[in-house]
């Protein structure tokens, strides 16, 4: 499983504060594991396996349906 990197703030002032906090040791600069994020490990591995088993055509169809659903909300 791949641990994602912590999200950085877009605001330069907040980013500067985060960097200062990391340098002083007030914040740990590491990505959270799925367990630490409160995710079910079995569900994560099933999702990864499903993503690997999809064909290109299936991925395109899923993405198309998602895009249509997002545009309908607007």
Observed structural traits:
mainly alpha; 59% helix; 74 residues; single chain
Structural class: mainly alpha
Number of helices: 3
Described by strand count, sense and barrel closure, the largest sheet is: none
Mean pLDDT: 86
Rg for CA atoms: 18 Å
Fraction of residues in β-strands:
under 5%
Number of domains: 1
Helicity, as a percent range: 55-70%
Number of strands: 0
Q: Could you explain how this protein is built, in words?
A:
The chain is an all-alpha fold and about 70 residues long. The chain has one domain (about 10-74). Helix content is about 60%, strand content about 0%. It has helices spanning about 10-25, 40-55, 55-74.
Task: Give a short overview.
The chain is mainly alpha-helical and 74 residues long. Helix content is 59%, strand content 0%.
How do the helices and strands line up, and which of them pair or pack?
Blueprint: H1 12-24, H2 41-53, H3 56-73
């Amino acid at each position: 499983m791949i641990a994602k990197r912590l999200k950085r703030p877009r605001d330069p002032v907040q980013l500067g504060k985060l960097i200062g906090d990391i340098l002083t040791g007030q914040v740990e600069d590491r990505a959270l594991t799925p367990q630490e994020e409160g995710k079910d490990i079995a569900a994560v591995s099933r999702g990864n396996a499903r993503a690997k088993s999809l064909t290109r055509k299936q991925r395109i169809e899923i993405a198309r349906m998602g895009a249509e659903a997002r545009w309908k909300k607007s």
